[in-house]
Amino acid sequence: MTKLSVNINKFATLRNSRVATTRTCKAAIDAQLFGADGVTVHPRPDERHIRYKDVYDIKKIITTEFNIEGNSQEQKFVDWCWI
Q: Could you tell me the pTM of the whole model?
């Protein structure tokens, strides 16, 4: 069976460019409420989309699959993902 995981990076991009008018945690919650099987984020070392704090905050509230794809070579990324 195919499952849908919603990528919320664009919500973070909008938030970053429009001074916090979009909330990434709300996007993650809404994706779940509307039936998504998971939420996907792609943190980058420069944090121009999802920030490491977003990963930490979303992890606390997500009840479906949380798919984190990113630069696992960087220790900061690994530290935040396992908190």
A: 0.78
Q: Does an H or E element contain 50, and which? A: none
Cβ-defined contacts of 21-27 (< 8 Å, 24+): 24/50, 24/54, 24/57, 24/58, 25/54, 25/57, 25/58, 25/61
d(CA 12, CA 23): 7
Which burial class, exposed, middle or buried, applies to 30 when counting CB atoms under 10 A from its CB (0-12, 13-18, 19+)? middle
Alpha-carbon distance of 45 to 50, in angstroms, equals 10
pLDDT tens over the chain, length 83 residues: 778 999 999 888 888 887 665 688 999 999 999 999 999 998 888 888 888 888 888 989 999 999 988 766 667 666 655 55
Element (H, E) at 10: helix 9-17
